């Protein structure tokens, strides 16, 4: 486990905690996407969505609603092969969670699922990969207003927008200066807020509690998994035992029936010739 002072903005806990601050979150998102956030309607870190008991739940690092759009921002430092499918599922969960029963579909907001990675997901060396649904026949966008975006912080030098380049550079190197040693004001603001957040908790107690909570949840999940495994094992055992019992009963019944038939045939008096 990293020490409190060694945590970076790309670390899950620090990212989700500091993004709770509306001003920081707005600035971060504006630099990331080159937009202006007029109003934050709702902001939540570590938002959980559990649609129904049998469905897979999700926990989003940052969930932000504007006037007509929803942003889900994830910090991803571990390379996984299922990220694209995960983004697809997040879009679906966001739609179901945000649309009230009986409301028309046109009330669905624009949604952006954003993954910030410290690796190149697609392997083509680009700093940004963006995906939208298009019609196969003519290549036009469908207008479903769902967008998936993956940022590759390691390719910050190739970013064309200077604000995005400054942000990705900071996430990748923790520096706020460019090649000419020019300090980028917005990146410096982010860096100062991160430093101030760490100074506010010099002993790192929130991080320690977070790690302990994760460990407790892991232990609870392990124990529940063992219990569930036992229950399933007993059910499977009962089914297999019943199946084996039925099979054995059939075999013994057939054998007894055959033996009885042979005895009856042997004891039956022969007709005189």
Quick gist of this model?
With 273 residues, the protein is an alpha/beta fold. It contains 6 helices and 6 strands.
How does this structure look, described?
- This protein has 273 residues and is of the alpha/beta class.
- The protein has six helices and six strands.
- It has helices spanning 12-18, 22-33, 83-98, 162-173, 185-200, 205-267; strands at residues 42-49, 58-65, 69-76, 110-117, 128-132, 146-152.
- The protein has a six-stranded mixed β-sheet with strand order 1-2-3-4-6-5, sandwiched between helices.
- The termini are far apart.
Core attributes:
16% strand; alpha/beta; 273 residues
Major sheet description:
6 strands, mixed
Please state how the strands of the largest beta sheet are arranged side by side: 1-2-3-4-6-5
Number of helices: 6
Q: What series of H and E elements makes up the topology?
A: HHEEEHEEEHHH
Kindly report the average pLDDT value: 82
Distance between the termini: 98 Å
Global shape: elongated
Helix content: 40-55%
**What structural class results from the helix and strand content?**
alpha/beta
Number of strands: 6
Rg calculated over all Cα atoms? 30 Å
Low-confidence stretches: 207-218
Beta-strand residue percentage: 15-25%
Topology:
Blueprint: H1 12-18, H2 22-33, E1 42-49, E2 58-65, E3 69-76, H3 83-98, E4 110-117, E5 128-132, E6 146-152, H4 162-173, H5 185-200, H6 205-267
Parallel strand pairs: 3-4, 4-6
Antiparallel strand pairs: 1-2, 2-3, 5-6
């Amino acid at each position: 486990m990293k020490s409190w002072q060694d945590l970076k903005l790309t670390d899950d806990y620090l990212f989700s905690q500091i993004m709770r601050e509306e001003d920081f979150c707005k600035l971060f998102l504006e630099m990331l996407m080159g937009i202006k956030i007029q109003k934050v309607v709702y902001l939540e870190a570590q938002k959980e969505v559990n649609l129904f008991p049998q469905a897979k739940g999700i926990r989003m690092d940052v969930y932000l609603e504007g006037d007509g759009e929803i942003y889900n921002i994830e910090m991803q430092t571990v390379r996984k092969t299922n990220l694209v499918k995960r983004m697809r599922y997040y879009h679906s969960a966001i739609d179901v969670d945000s649309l009230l029963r009986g409301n028309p579909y046109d009330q669905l907001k624009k949604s952006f699922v954003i993954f910030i990675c410290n690796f190149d997901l697609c392997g083509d060396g680009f700093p940004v990969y963006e995906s939208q649904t298009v019609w196969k026949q003519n290549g036009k966008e469908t207008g479903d207003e769902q967008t998936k975006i993956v940022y590759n912080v390691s390719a910050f030098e190739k970013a064309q927008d200077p604000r995005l380049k400054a942000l990705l550079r900071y996430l990748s190197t923790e520096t706020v200066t460019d090649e000419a040693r020019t300090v980028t004001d917005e990146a410096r603001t982010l860096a100062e807020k991160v430093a101030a957040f760490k100074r506010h908790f010099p002993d790192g107690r929130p991080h320690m509690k977070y790690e302990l909570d994760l460990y407790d949840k892991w232990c609870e999940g392990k124990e529940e998994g063992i219990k569930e495994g036992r229950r399933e094992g007993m059910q499977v055992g009962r089914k297999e035992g019943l199946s084996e019992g039925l099979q054995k009963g059939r075999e013994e019944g057939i054998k007894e029936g055959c033996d009885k038939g042979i005895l009856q045939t042997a004891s039956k008096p022969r007709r005189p010739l």
